# Entry
Amino acid sequence: MAISNRPQSGEMYEHIDVRNPVTNEIIGSVRQTPRDEIKEAIERARNAQIGWSALTTSERVKFIRKWADLIWKQQETLIKLNRRETGKTDSGAFLEIIVLDNILQYYIHQAPTLLKSQNRRTVVPFIQKAKVFYKPHGVVGVISPWNYPYLLGLIDLVPALIAGNSALLKPSEVTPFTAEYAIKLMYEAGIPRDVVQVIHGDGRAGATLVEHVDYIAFTGSTATGRKVAEVAAKRLIPYSLELGGKDPCIVLEDADLDMTASGLVRSAFENAGQVCISVERVYADARIYDALMDKLQYYASRYQIGAGDGMDIHMGSMTNTRELERTEAHIHDAISKGARVIFGGRRRPDLGPLFFEPTILADVDHSMDVMRQETFGPILPVMAFHTLEEAIRLANDSEYGLSASIFTRNLKRAEAIAKRLDTGDVSVNRPQMAVATPSLPSGGQRNSGVGRRNGKEGLLRFTHTQSFLTDSLFGQKPELRLADPFSLQVALILRTIRRYIKFI
# Structure
């Protein structure tokens, strides 16, 4: 059954059709939320935020806990909606639920402590007391992409709510229904409707959010991220950006090649490669290069592609034509410059209009687009290196700096290498796991973004600090000078003491 919120007769609104990428059929439509309605929704959110922020963190967390339980009960519905919008597999859609649930449980348990006021050291100990309060920004705008409509739609919104903000979510117009359904479950969990709202539309709706909210959390392309940052900077509002990536992987000579090959295939081809933290370029030690390529072909041959139900399908359809065409362009460019396709490399129209085979490229180098530009498709290019210094240099030779991975048996060596990589996170022997670990902050360097999600950093970004100081008035007298002889003597004594006792 198609999903639609088309207007009644006589209403004139712009609508956006939503298609199933597997069949190209229209599954529903969303109404482009007019600018005036977005501004009205923001005002309602601003009013509702007053009462929402007046609740304790523990009280807000109770609503999130109830919502998380509802999500788990309705997972089949979410999976079906997700698959119809994105063309991904059952396992891929279910993975979104699992990853976000882990993050939810982390914040449910940790948020009351993380948002609790903190005592700080004062200038005059015992007489003065100092605290830091964490206060919400107000109204948070969340703009999410199409590749993970549930996970990336809610991963920023939930901590924003827990911190005491109200929020407006604009999901991608390509995949609006999964996130919208999740928000409906929030209402069932008791979260007031004006505290969290959904607006629909293209970039115009997103631009209106950026122009009027108090904080913006954006996930999407680097080009659009720059525009968001420009407007936010002009308005002097805080923001966080999760942008593009060209994530490198370094395979050392001592790596377990079976674990490496299976891990690389899984990471590169998950969600048809439409993952900002997927492995997009591999640097393998020349001594094991040929052996690794053989293993990659073996595991890629076992990778099941299709549109059927069930957890046995590893990769589904790509979501839109733009990404498919870019994938093909990168392959053609690489071949023209000397690369070889050793696996895949073709469309699969027999499965659907946007299916593309998992593809492995050999003999690549940095003259090729596939090693420089974000592909966002199922391609795994592999380049040989001869020294570790060369591998690190090549891994850092990118405008992006989102995620990286290393395969080796020597974990101390891996840690030393990780410290030299210009990325927001590094995973060893299991790509993408750092970003899926709730306690670890995740985010990019350079053109991959600004700010961090997950961990305490991912929660506290939705707050600003307020410093609070009290003085007992002990020993004070009416005085116009900032410092009298007595206070100067006290200051000198305290300075001497502090050289040896750090807590005073």
Summary: The CA atoms of residues 86 and 319 lie 5 Å apart.
